[in-house]
Amino acid sequence: IKTETDEVLLWTCETILTPRWLHRRFRAMTGPLLTCRFQDPEPADSSMEEESDTRKINNSFLRDQNYATEADIISTVEFNSSGELLATGDKGGRVVVFQREQESKSQPQRRGEYNVYSTFQSHEPEFDYLKSLEIEEKINKIRWLPQQNAAYFLLSTNDKTVKLWKISERDKRPEGYNLKDDDGRIRSPSTITSLRVPVLQPMDLMVEATARRVFSNAHTYHINSISVNSDLQTFISTDDLRVNLWNLEITDRSFNIVDIKPANMEDLTEVITSAEFHPQQCHTFAYSSSKGSIRLCDMRQAALCDKHCKYFEEPEDPSTRSFFSEIISSISDVKFSHNGRYLMTRDYLTVKVWDLQMENKPLETYQVHDYLRGKLCSLYENDCIFDKFECVWNGSDSVIMTGSYNNFFRMFDRNTKRDVTLEASRENSKPRAILKPRKVCVGGKRRKDEISVDSLDFSKKILHTAWHPHENIIAVAATNNLYIFQDKVN
Prior knowledge:
Layout: E1 7-11, H1 19-23, H2 25-30, E2 32-37, E3 60-61, E4 74-79, E5 85-90, E6 94-100, E7 114-121, E8 126-128, E9 133-135, E10 141-144, E11 152-157, E12 162-175, E13 199-215, E14 225-228, E15 234-238, E16 242-247, E17 255-259, E18 272-277, E19 284-289, E20 294-298, E21 310-312, H3 325-328, E22 333-336, E23 342-346, E24 350-355, E25 364-367, H4 376-381, E26 391-393, E27 399-403, E28 408-413, E29 419-423, E30 439-441, E31 450-452, E32 464-467, E33 473-478, E34 481-486
Parallel strand pairs: 30-31
Antiparallel strand pairs: 1-2, 3-34, 4-5, 5-6, 6-7, 8-9, 10-11, 11-12, 12-13, 14-15, 15-16, 16-17, 18-19, 19-20, 20-21, 22-23, 23-24, 24-25, 26-27, 27-28, 28-29, 32-33, 33-34
Keywords: Repeat, WD repeat
Protein name: Serine/threonine-protein phosphatase 2A 55 kDa regulatory subunit B
Subunit structure: PP2A consists of a common heterodimeric core enzyme, composed of a 36 kDa catalytic subunit (subunit C) and a 65 kDa constant regulatory subunit (PR65 or subunit A), that associates with a variety of regulatory subunits.
Protein backbone atom coordinates (compact mmCIF):
# COMPACT_ATOMS: atom_id res chain seq x y z
CA ILE A 1 0.00 0.00 0.00
CA LYS A 2 1.65 3.23 -1.14
CA THR A 3 0.82 6.30 0.89
CA GLU A 4 1.04 9.98 0.08
CA THR A 5 4.40 10.22 1.89
CA ASP A 6 6.01 7.65 -0.42
CA GLU A 7 5.95 4.98 2.26
CA VAL A 8 5.24 1.35 1.48
CA LEU A 9 3.54 -0.66 4.22
CA LEU A 10 3.89 -4.44 4.24
CA TRP A 11 0.98 -6.01 6.07
CA THR A 12 0.64 -9.53 7.42
CA CYS A 13 -1.99 -11.57 9.24
CA GLU A 14 0.61 -13.77 10.97
CA THR A 15 -0.15 -13.96 14.67
CA ILE A 16 2.78 -13.02 16.94
CA LEU A 17 2.64 -15.09 20.12
CA THR A 18 4.15 -13.01 22.91
CA PRO A 19 2.78 -11.43 26.09
CA ARG A 20 2.47 -8.27 23.98
CA TRP A 21 0.18 -10.24 21.66
CA LEU A 22 -2.02 -11.33 24.52
CA HIS A 23 -2.72 -7.70 25.41
CA ARG A 24 -2.53 -6.07 22.00
CA ARG A 25 -3.98 -8.74 19.77
CA PHE A 26 -5.56 -6.32 17.33
CA ARG A 27 -2.38 -4.32 17.02
CA ALA A 28 -0.26 -7.43 16.42
CA MET A 29 -2.57 -8.91 13.81
CA THR A 30 -3.38 -5.78 11.83
CA GLY A 31 -0.41 -3.42 12.31
CA PRO A 32 2.30 -2.81 9.70
CA LEU A 33 5.10 -5.33 9.80
CA LEU A 34 7.57 -3.23 7.87
CA THR A 35 7.78 0.41 6.83
CA CYS A 36 10.09 1.40 3.97
CA ARG A 37 10.75 4.93 2.78
CA PHE A 38 12.32 5.45 -0.61
CA GLN A 39 14.95 8.17 -0.72
CA ASP A 40 18.20 8.98 -2.46
CA PRO A 41 21.10 7.02 -0.99
CA GLU A 42 23.52 9.07 1.08
CA PRO A 43 27.25 8.82 0.35
CA ALA A 44 29.08 6.41 2.59
CA ASP A 45 31.10 7.96 5.37
CA SER A 46 34.50 6.34 5.55
CA SER A 47 34.94 7.56 9.11
CA MET A 48 32.08 5.29 10.21
CA GLU A 49 33.83 2.08 9.16
CA GLU A 50 34.29 -0.26 12.07
CA GLU A 51 37.81 -0.81 13.31
CA SER A 52 39.10 -4.22 12.40
CA ASP A 53 41.44 -4.71 15.36
CA THR A 54 39.20 -5.59 18.30
CA ARG A 55 41.05 -8.63 19.57
CA LYS A 56 42.59 -7.20 22.73
CA ILE A 57 39.95 -7.13 25.45
CA ASN A 58 40.79 -6.31 29.06
CA ASN A 59 38.16 -5.17 31.54
CA SER A 60 35.26 -4.83 29.13
CA PHE A 61 34.35 -5.46 25.51
CA LEU A 62 33.51 -1.95 24.35
CA ARG A 63 32.90 -0.74 20.82
CA ASP A 64 32.86 2.94 19.97
CA GLN A 65 29.27 4.10 20.31
CA ASN A 66 29.63 6.00 17.04
CA TYR A 67 30.06 2.64 15.29
CA ALA A 68 27.33 0.80 17.19
CA THR A 69 24.39 -0.44 15.15
CA GLU A 70 21.30 -2.50 15.92
CA ALA A 71 23.24 -5.62 14.95
CA ASP A 72 25.83 -4.94 17.70
CA ILE A 73 23.31 -5.22 20.55
CA ILE A 74 24.21 -8.22 22.72
CA SER A 75 21.29 -10.65 23.01
CA THR A 76 22.76 -13.45 25.18
CA VAL A 77 25.73 -14.14 27.49
CA GLU A 78 26.90 -17.54 28.76
CA PHE A 79 29.92 -18.99 30.62
CA ASN A 80 30.97 -22.56 29.88
CA SER A 81 31.02 -25.19 32.65
CA SER A 82 34.61 -24.41 33.68
CA GLY A 83 34.31 -20.65 33.36
CA GLU A 84 37.36 -20.45 31.11
CA LEU A 85 35.26 -19.38 28.12
CA LEU A 86 32.56 -16.77 27.84
CA ALA A 87 30.31 -16.56 24.78
CA THR A 88 28.12 -13.68 23.65
CA GLY A 89 25.61 -13.54 20.82
CA ASP A 90 24.22 -10.40 19.21
CA LYS A 91 21.36 -9.31 17.00
CA GLY A 92 23.62 -9.53 13.95
CA GLY A 93 23.89 -13.32 14.30
CA ARG A 94 27.51 -13.22 15.48
CA VAL A 95 29.02 -15.23 18.32
CA VAL A 96 32.08 -13.86 20.11
CA VAL A 97 33.94 -16.25 22.43
CA PHE A 98 36.30 -14.90 25.08
CA GLN A 99 38.99 -16.98 26.75
CA ARG A 100 40.44 -16.37 30.17
CA GLU A 101 44.19 -15.92 30.10
CA GLN A 102 46.37 -17.82 32.52
CA GLU A 103 47.25 -15.89 35.65
CA SER A 104 50.66 -14.27 35.48
CA LYS A 105 53.01 -14.51 38.46
CA SER A 106 54.64 -11.22 37.49
CA GLN A 107 51.25 -9.46 37.35
CA PRO A 108 48.97 -11.18 39.88
CA GLN A 109 46.61 -8.22 39.93
CA ARG A 110 45.39 -9.07 36.42
CA ARG A 111 43.98 -12.39 37.70
CA GLY A 112 43.38 -13.88 34.29
CA GLU A 113 41.57 -11.39 32.06
CA TYR A 114 39.27 -12.39 29.21
CA ASN A 115 40.43 -11.78 25.65
CA VAL A 116 38.77 -12.57 22.33
CA TYR A 117 39.28 -16.23 21.45
CA SER A 118 37.04 -16.73 18.41
CA THR A 119 34.46 -14.80 16.41
CA PHE A 120 32.15 -16.37 13.85
CA GLN A 121 28.84 -15.79 12.10
CA SER A 122 26.39 -18.27 13.57
CA HIS A 123 23.14 -17.35 11.78
CA GLU A 124 22.25 -15.42 8.65
CA PRO A 125 18.98 -13.61 7.89
CA GLU A 126 16.48 -15.76 6.04
CA PHE A 127 13.05 -15.36 4.47
CA ASP A 128 10.15 -17.78 4.72
CA TYR A 129 8.53 -17.48 1.30
CA LEU A 130 5.54 -19.63 2.25
CA LYS A 131 4.56 -17.37 5.15
CA SER A 132 6.13 -14.16 3.79
CA LEU A 133 8.04 -13.70 7.04
CA GLU A 134 11.58 -12.57 7.60
CA ILE A 135 13.62 -14.73 9.98
CA GLU A 136 16.06 -12.60 11.90
CA GLU A 137 19.65 -13.65 12.45
CA LYS A 138 19.51 -12.57 16.12
CA ILE A 139 21.00 -15.09 18.56
CA ASN A 140 18.34 -15.77 21.18
CA LYS A 141 20.27 -18.20 23.38
CA ILE A 142 23.67 -19.88 23.69
CA ARG A 143 24.26 -23.03 25.74
CA TRP A 144 27.63 -24.76 26.22
CA LEU A 145 28.04 -28.51 26.27
CA PRO A 146 30.38 -29.94 28.94
CA GLN A 147 33.86 -30.37 27.52
CA GLN A 148 34.70 -33.98 26.60
CA ASN A 149 37.99 -33.49 24.73
CA ALA A 150 40.27 -30.73 23.51
CA ALA A 151 37.47 -29.10 21.50
CA TYR A 152 34.57 -27.02 22.77
CA PHE A 153 30.94 -27.38 21.71
CA LEU A 154 28.06 -24.93 22.03
CA LEU A 155 24.46 -24.64 20.87
CA SER A 156 23.17 -21.36 19.45
CA THR A 157 19.68 -20.55 18.22
CA ASN A 158 17.75 -17.82 16.48
CA ASP A 159 13.96 -17.80 16.11
CA LYS A 160 13.78 -21.00 14.05
CA THR A 161 17.08 -22.90 13.84
CA VAL A 162 19.43 -24.41 16.44
CA LYS A 163 23.06 -25.04 15.47
CA LEU A 164 25.77 -27.10 17.14
CA TRP A 165 29.20 -25.49 16.81
CA LYS A 166 32.62 -27.04 17.37
CA ILE A 167 35.43 -24.69 18.38
CA SER A 168 38.89 -26.22 18.05
CA GLU A 169 42.52 -25.14 17.90
CA ARG A 170 45.10 -25.96 15.24
CA ASP A 171 48.79 -25.10 15.68
CA LYS A 172 50.37 -27.65 13.28
CA ARG A 173 50.00 -28.28 9.56
CA PRO A 174 51.03 -31.35 7.52
CA GLU A 175 53.81 -30.92 4.93
CA GLY A 176 55.59 -33.27 2.54
CA TYR A 177 52.69 -34.71 0.53
CA ASN A 178 53.47 -37.17 -2.23
CA LEU A 179 50.70 -36.19 -4.66
CA LYS A 180 50.75 -32.41 -4.03
CA ASP A 181 53.35 -29.69 -4.17
CA ASP A 182 54.01 -27.45 -1.19
CA ASP A 183 51.72 -24.82 -2.72
CA GLY A 184 48.86 -27.36 -3.06
CA ARG A 185 49.02 -28.12 -6.80
CA ILE A 186 48.54 -31.72 -7.91
CA ARG A 187 51.77 -33.38 -9.07
CA SER A 188 51.96 -35.56 -12.14
CA PRO A 189 52.37 -39.23 -11.17
CA SER A 190 55.21 -39.54 -13.72
CA THR A 191 57.32 -37.07 -11.74
CA ILE A 192 57.04 -39.01 -8.47
CA THR A 193 60.27 -41.00 -8.07
CA SER A 194 60.36 -41.52 -4.29
CA LEU A 195 57.99 -41.93 -1.39
CA ARG A 196 57.91 -39.23 1.25
CA VAL A 197 56.47 -39.44 4.75
CA PRO A 198 54.38 -36.33 5.57
CA VAL A 199 55.37 -34.50 8.75
CA LEU A 200 53.61 -31.97 10.98
CA GLN A 201 55.17 -28.52 11.14
CA PRO A 202 54.31 -25.88 13.78
CA MET A 203 52.23 -22.89 12.68
CA ASP A 204 50.52 -19.90 14.25
CA LEU A 205 47.63 -20.87 16.46
CA MET A 206 44.35 -20.91 14.54
CA VAL A 207 40.95 -21.21 16.20
CA GLU A 208 38.31 -22.75 13.94
CA ALA A 209 34.53 -22.73 14.43
CA THR A 210 32.67 -25.42 12.50
CA ALA A 211 28.92 -26.04 12.35
CA ARG A 212 28.57 -29.77 13.12
CA ARG A 213 24.77 -30.05 13.32
CA VAL A 214 21.81 -27.95 12.18
CA PHE A 215 18.47 -28.60 13.90
CA SER A 216 15.75 -26.91 11.84
CA ASN A 217 12.17 -27.10 10.54
CA ALA A 218 10.66 -28.09 13.88
CA HIS A 219 9.21 -24.84 15.24
CA THR A 220 6.24 -22.89 13.93
CA TYR A 221 6.73 -20.10 16.44
CA HIS A 222 9.79 -18.29 17.77
CA ILE A 223 12.30 -20.24 19.84
CA ASN A 224 12.80 -18.52 23.20
CA SER A 225 15.08 -20.98 25.02
CA ILE A 226 17.22 -24.10 24.72
CA SER A 227 18.58 -26.33 27.47
CA VAL A 228 21.08 -29.20 27.44
CA ASN A 229 20.15 -32.34 29.37
CA SER A 230 22.40 -33.78 32.07
CA ASP A 231 22.61 -37.04 30.08
CA LEU A 232 24.71 -35.09 27.50
CA GLN A 233 22.77 -36.77 24.69
CA THR A 234 19.61 -34.65 24.37
CA PHE A 235 18.43 -31.06 24.61
CA ILE A 236 15.14 -29.20 24.41
CA SER A 237 14.15 -26.22 22.32
CA THR A 238 11.12 -24.18 23.34
CA ASP A 239 8.87 -21.81 21.43
CA ASP A 240 5.67 -20.00 22.45
CA LEU A 241 3.46 -23.10 22.37
CA ARG A 242 5.66 -26.20 22.19
CA VAL A 243 8.72 -27.89 23.70
CA ASN A 244 10.70 -30.23 21.44
CA LEU A 245 13.21 -32.87 22.54
CA TRP A 246 16.25 -33.46 20.30
CA ASN A 247 19.06 -35.97 20.20
CA LEU A 248 22.41 -34.26 19.60
CA GLU A 249 23.26 -36.81 16.92
CA ILE A 250 19.95 -36.65 14.99
CA THR A 251 18.95 -33.54 13.07
CA ASP A 252 16.05 -34.66 10.90
CA ARG A 253 13.50 -35.35 13.65
CA SER A 254 12.57 -34.31 17.15
CA PHE A 255 9.93 -35.33 19.70
CA ASN A 256 7.22 -32.92 20.79
CA ILE A 257 6.95 -33.33 24.58
CA VAL A 258 4.80 -30.27 25.41
CA ASP A 259 2.04 -28.78 23.25
CA ILE A 260 -0.32 -26.15 24.69
CA LYS A 261 -1.75 -24.97 21.37
CA PRO A 262 -5.56 -24.95 21.58
CA ALA A 263 -7.78 -26.21 18.78
CA ASN A 264 -9.02 -22.66 18.30
CA MET A 265 -6.38 -19.95 18.60
CA GLU A 266 -9.04 -17.58 19.94
CA ASP A 267 -9.02 -19.69 23.11
CA LEU A 268 -5.32 -19.09 23.71
CA THR A 269 -4.75 -17.52 27.12
CA GLU A 270 -1.04 -18.09 27.81
CA VAL A 271 2.24 -18.84 26.08
CA ILE A 272 5.45 -20.59 27.15
CA THR A 273 8.20 -18.13 28.02
CA SER A 274 11.16 -20.31 29.09
CA ALA A 275 12.15 -23.91 29.84
CA GLU A 276 15.12 -25.65 31.44
CA PHE A 277 16.28 -29.16 32.33
CA HIS A 278 17.00 -30.18 35.91
CA PRO A 279 20.80 -30.13 36.48
CA GLN A 280 20.95 -33.72 37.83
CA GLN A 281 17.72 -35.51 36.93
CA CYS A 282 17.72 -36.12 33.18
CA HIS A 283 13.99 -36.88 33.12
CA THR A 284 12.85 -33.64 34.79
CA PHE A 285 12.37 -30.20 33.26
CA ALA A 286 10.41 -27.06 34.06
CA TYR A 287 8.75 -24.46 31.88
CA SER A 288 7.19 -21.11 32.72
CA SER A 289 4.23 -19.28 31.23
CA SER A 290 3.05 -15.74 30.64
CA LYS A 291 0.50 -16.21 33.43
CA GLY A 292 3.21 -16.41 36.08
CA SER A 293 3.05 -20.17 36.64
CA ILE A 294 5.78 -22.84 36.50
CA ARG A 295 5.15 -26.46 35.60
CA LEU A 296 7.52 -29.25 36.57
CA CYS A 297 7.30 -32.25 34.22
CA ASP A 298 8.60 -35.81 34.39
CA MET A 299 9.30 -37.44 31.01
CA ARG A 300 8.98 -40.89 32.58
CA GLN A 301 5.23 -40.47 33.07
CA ALA A 302 4.21 -40.10 29.42
CA ALA A 303 5.63 -39.33 26.00
CA LEU A 304 3.63 -36.09 25.88
CA CYS A 305 4.05 -34.13 29.10
CA ASP A 306 0.69 -32.36 28.94
CA LYS A 307 0.10 -33.23 32.59
CA HIS A 308 2.62 -31.72 34.96
CA CYS A 309 3.76 -33.41 38.13
CA LYS A 310 4.09 -30.13 40.07
CA TYR A 311 2.57 -26.70 39.59
CA PHE A 312 4.07 -23.56 41.14
CA GLU A 313 2.01 -20.38 41.29
CA GLU A 314 1.61 -17.64 43.87
CA PRO A 315 -2.02 -16.62 44.47
CA GLU A 316 -2.69 -13.04 43.46
CA ASP A 317 -3.68 -10.49 46.07
CA PRO A 318 -7.07 -9.10 44.94
CA SER A 319 -6.37 -5.77 46.67
CA THR A 320 -3.38 -5.07 44.43
CA ARG A 321 -4.89 -6.26 41.15
CA SER A 322 -4.77 -3.77 38.27
CA PHE A 323 -4.84 -3.62 34.49
CA PHE A 324 -1.11 -4.41 34.44
CA SER A 325 -1.20 -7.37 36.85
CA GLU A 326 -1.23 -10.03 34.14
CA ILE A 327 1.58 -8.37 32.18
CA ILE A 328 4.00 -7.90 35.10
CA SER A 329 3.33 -11.43 36.40
CA SER A 330 4.62 -12.99 33.16
CA ILE A 331 7.80 -14.98 33.88
CA SER A 332 10.69 -14.05 31.60
CA ASP A 333 13.30 -16.51 32.89
CA VAL A 334 13.46 -19.72 34.91
CA LYS A 335 16.66 -21.26 36.34
CA PHE A 336 17.33 -24.33 38.48
CA SER A 337 19.87 -23.92 41.26
CA HIS A 338 23.15 -25.81 40.83
CA ASN A 339 22.19 -28.28 43.55
CA GLY A 340 18.81 -28.88 41.90
CA ARG A 341 16.76 -28.09 45.03
CA TYR A 342 15.48 -24.65 44.12
CA LEU A 343 13.91 -22.94 41.15
CA MET A 344 14.37 -19.22 40.47
CA THR A 345 12.00 -17.16 38.33
CA ARG A 346 12.06 -13.55 37.17
CA ASP A 347 8.98 -11.52 36.39
CA TYR A 348 8.89 -7.82 35.62
CA LEU A 349 9.24 -6.49 39.17
CA THR A 350 10.51 -9.39 41.30
CA VAL A 351 12.78 -12.40 41.53
CA LYS A 352 11.32 -15.43 43.31
CA VAL A 353 13.00 -18.55 44.68
CA TRP A 354 10.86 -21.68 44.88
CA ASP A 355 11.53 -24.82 46.86
CA LEU A 356 10.68 -27.84 44.70
CA GLN A 357 8.94 -29.36 47.73
CA MET A 358 6.62 -26.37 48.23
CA GLU A 359 4.25 -25.45 45.42
CA ASN A 360 1.78 -23.03 47.02
CA LYS A 361 4.08 -20.02 47.47
CA PRO A 362 7.69 -18.98 46.81
CA LEU A 363 10.31 -19.51 49.47
CA GLU A 364 11.83 -16.07 48.90
CA THR A 365 10.71 -12.95 47.01
CA TYR A 366 13.05 -10.08 46.14
CA GLN A 367 11.90 -6.71 44.84
CA VAL A 368 14.08 -5.66 41.89
CA HIS A 369 12.71 -2.21 41.11
CA ASP A 370 9.53 -1.75 43.12
CA TYR A 371 9.82 2.00 42.61
CA LEU A 372 8.48 1.48 39.07
CA ARG A 373 5.00 0.44 40.24
CA GLY A 374 3.82 4.00 39.92
CA LYS A 375 5.14 4.26 36.36
CA LEU A 376 3.55 1.15 34.85
CA CYS A 377 1.27 3.23 32.65
CA SER A 378 4.14 5.08 30.94
CA LEU A 379 6.16 1.84 30.77
CA TYR A 380 3.21 0.24 28.98
CA GLU A 381 3.02 3.09 26.49
CA ASN A 382 6.72 2.84 25.55
CA ASP A 383 6.59 -1.01 25.55
CA CYS A 384 9.25 -1.31 28.29
CA ILE A 385 6.78 -3.31 30.36
CA PHE A 386 7.32 -6.20 27.92
CA ASP A 387 11.12 -6.33 28.46
CA LYS A 388 12.38 -9.80 29.35
CA PHE A 389 15.00 -9.74 32.11
CA GLU A 390 17.13 -12.79 32.93
CA CYS A 391 18.36 -13.97 36.32
CA VAL A 392 21.39 -16.07 37.38
CA TRP A 393 22.75 -17.90 40.43
CA ASN A 394 26.29 -17.67 41.71
CA GLY A 395 28.31 -20.89 41.98
CA SER A 396 27.17 -21.71 45.52
CA ASP A 397 23.49 -20.71 45.02
CA SER A 398 23.84 -18.16 47.84
CA VAL A 399 23.58 -14.99 45.72
CA ILE A 400 21.31 -14.17 42.78
CA MET A 401 21.69 -11.43 40.20
CA THR A 402 19.37 -9.78 37.70
CA GLY A 403 19.23 -6.61 35.62
CA SER A 404 17.24 -3.40 35.68
CA TYR A 405 17.06 -0.03 33.89
CA ASN A 406 19.59 2.80 33.69
CA ASN A 407 22.28 0.08 33.29
CA PHE A 408 21.65 -0.97 36.90
CA PHE A 409 21.94 -4.58 38.02
CA ARG A 410 20.87 -6.01 41.36
CA MET A 411 22.42 -8.63 43.66
CA PHE A 412 20.61 -10.35 46.53
CA ASP A 413 22.40 -12.34 49.25
CA ARG A 414 20.08 -15.14 50.33
CA ASN A 415 21.90 -15.71 53.64
CA THR A 416 22.21 -12.16 54.96
CA LYS A 417 19.13 -10.84 53.07
CA ARG A 418 21.20 -7.85 51.98
CA ASP A 419 20.98 -6.43 48.48
CA VAL A 420 22.98 -3.98 46.40
CA THR A 421 22.43 -1.99 43.23
CA LEU A 422 25.41 -1.47 40.93
CA GLU A 423 25.80 0.35 37.64
CA ALA A 424 27.60 -0.79 34.49
CA SER A 425 28.70 2.25 32.51
CA ARG A 426 31.80 3.65 30.86
CA GLU A 427 32.05 6.52 33.29
CA ASN A 428 32.48 4.42 36.45
CA SER A 429 33.82 1.14 35.03
CA LYS A 430 37.49 1.83 34.47
CA PRO A 431 39.85 -1.17 34.80
CA ARG A 432 40.21 -2.26 38.44
CA ALA A 433 37.89 0.50 39.65
CA ILE A 434 35.62 -0.27 42.61
CA LEU A 435 31.90 0.00 41.86
CA LYS A 436 29.91 2.16 44.25
CA PRO A 437 26.40 1.11 45.28
CA ARG A 438 23.62 3.19 43.72
CA LYS A 439 20.28 4.15 45.24
CA VAL A 440 17.07 5.30 43.60
CA CYS A 441 15.04 8.01 45.31
CA VAL A 442 11.24 7.96 44.92
CA GLY A 443 10.28 11.07 46.85
CA GLY A 444 10.97 14.72 46.07
CA LYS A 445 14.06 15.14 48.24
CA ARG A 446 17.11 13.10 47.44
CA ARG A 447 20.63 12.83 48.72
CA LYS A 448 23.74 13.62 46.76
CA ASP A 449 24.54 9.99 45.95
CA GLU A 450 20.96 9.10 44.97
CA ILE A 451 19.27 9.23 41.59
CA SER A 452 15.65 10.20 41.10
CA VAL A 453 13.29 7.65 39.63
CA ASP A 454 12.22 10.30 37.12
CA SER A 455 15.82 10.54 35.87
CA LEU A 456 16.17 6.85 34.97
CA ASP A 457 17.07 6.11 31.36
CA PHE A 458 14.78 3.29 30.20
CA SER A 459 16.65 2.92 26.92
CA LYS A 460 19.63 1.62 28.94
CA LYS A 461 18.67 -1.77 30.26
CA ILE A 462 20.53 -4.88 31.38
CA LEU A 463 18.57 -7.88 30.18
CA HIS A 464 21.36 -10.48 29.96
CA THR A 465 23.84 -11.47 32.69
CA ALA A 466 26.04 -14.46 33.51
CA TRP A 467 27.95 -15.64 36.60
CA HIS A 468 31.17 -17.65 36.60
CA PRO A 469 30.33 -21.19 37.83
CA HIS A 470 33.07 -21.25 40.48
CA GLU A 471 34.34 -17.72 41.13
CA ASN A 472 32.94 -14.27 41.80
CA ILE A 473 33.22 -13.10 38.21
CA ILE A 474 30.16 -11.73 36.42
CA ALA A 475 29.46 -10.69 32.85
CA VAL A 476 26.88 -7.98 32.22
CA ALA A 477 25.57 -7.04 28.77
CA ALA A 478 24.52 -3.40 28.49
CA THR A 479 23.18 -2.78 24.98
CA ASN A 480 26.28 -3.22 22.75
CA ASN A 481 28.81 -3.31 25.61
CA LEU A 482 29.97 -6.29 27.64
CA TYR A 483 31.29 -5.60 31.14
CA ILE A 484 33.23 -8.18 33.12
CA PHE A 485 33.52 -7.59 36.88
CA GLN A 486 35.31 -9.58 39.55
CA ASP A 487 35.57 -9.39 43.32
CA LYS A 488 37.94 -6.94 44.95
CA VAL A 489 41.66 -7.73 44.72
CA ASN A 490 43.30 -7.54 48.14
